[in-house]
Here is the input.
Amino acid sequence: MEAKVTWNKGLQFTATTPDGVSLEIESSALPGEQKKGMSPMQLLAVATIGCTAMDVISILEKMRQDVTGFEVNFNGERAADHPKVFTDIEVEYVVYGRDLAPDKVEKAVNLSIERYCSVHAMLAKAVPIHHTIRIIAE
Here is the structure.
């Protein structure tokens, strides 16, 4: 895998991948400017829940679950001193649907976090990650 970041100005960068996808990364907006990108730690959070979200939806579709909506929420506590690493993470899966089987939803989440999601697997080696699942019938 390859990626590149190019400095724009201040603490603003553009990240690109060989397939032409790009996104803005920044620590904070320059005075008088609106923030355009996520911070590196926000990207790590988004990468973690994005990875597991893709797995869970794919698995639930294969299980023929009638999912009508889905979101994954990340709440990370960070160390007070540098480097301000995550010290504890809560991940909440919220699944909306009709006639969802709770055991299948739980199995899909567990398969993602225990077998498929590489970002979660790497992060879990460094910090405790706790999971909750909410199923909302529609």
